[in-house]
Amino acid sequence: MADVKPRFEFRTFAQEFGLVETRMRSLCPVDKIRESSEIYIVSRANNENNTKIRDALMDIKVFVQAQKGLEQWNPRMKGEFPMPVGTIRSEVFPAFGVKMPEFTRDTYTLTQFIDEVIRAHPDLTAVSVFKRRFGFTVNDCITEVAELLINGAAIKTVAVESTDVEAILKAKEMLGLGDYENVNYLVAIKRIIGMLPAPKTWTR
């Protein structure tokens, strides 16, 4: 993963985005539409390692730094199931920051990993996330609005990403995102499943 330059990200969540989405669509036609079903693994111990599974591939990103209200994330590992227990011990579980369990297998399929390891752990939760993502380019930044189902709860997210901090800040201004809170997926998911308190703006 050393050749990947970490991007900065602004991401926010709401039931509807109204004029923000209207501005986004007026500034750029849709580049692509993608759908995916993913599993996020959230830990009570930290919000700094983003672990998700899509198409039987585990993707871990680690928080690097905050700058001007943005967050920078760096890819840490990609792993494929079935996964050797050695990889789970050395690369996966350290990202959760929780007590490592006893493993009973040498290799785990995705189903075995979720059912026997994650669901059995008191400090970890597997969360189902369906995404329908609409991609745009605004001020040379990767931009999207996505419709989500998080354990069945419907919500939307808007994100602006780039390696250029100032370009993101300008794109935020162009889209009218100045008053929106920057919230990463881990915090948003924890709020929705009750692991963290939800803001009042989500519950009105």
Produce a short descriptive summary.
The protein has a single domain, classed as Hypothetical Protein Pfu-838710-001. Helix content is 26%, strand content 44%.
Question: Mind explaining what this structure looks like?
Answer:
This protein has 204 residues and is of the alpha+beta class. The chain has one domain (7-203): Hypothetical Protein Pfu-838710-001 (Beta Barrel). The protein contains six helices and ten strands, in the order E-H-E-E-E-E-E-H-E-H-E-E-E-H-H-H. The strands form two sheets. An eight-stranded antiparallel beta barrel has the order 1-5-4-3-2-8-9-10, surrounded by four helices. The mean pLDDT is 94.
Query: H/E series, N to C?
Result: EHEEEEEHEHEEEHHH
**Main β sheet profile:** 8 strands, antiparallel, barrel
Q: What is the approximate shape?
A: elongated
The CATH superfamily is Hypothetical Protein Pfu-838710-001
CATH class: Mainly Beta
- Let me know the number of strands: 10
Domains counted in the coordinates: how many?
A: 1
Give the percentage of residues in beta strands.
35-45%
CATH architecture: Beta Barrel
Rg (CA only): 18 Å
**Helix residue percentage:** 25-40%
Content-based structural category: alpha+beta
How do the strands of the widest beta sheet line up side by side? 1-5-4-3-2-8-9-10
CATH topology type: Hypothetical Protein Pfu-838710-001
Question: Uncertain regions: pLDDT < 50 for 5+ in a row?
Answer: none
Distance N to C terminus: 42 Å
- Quickly count the helices: 6
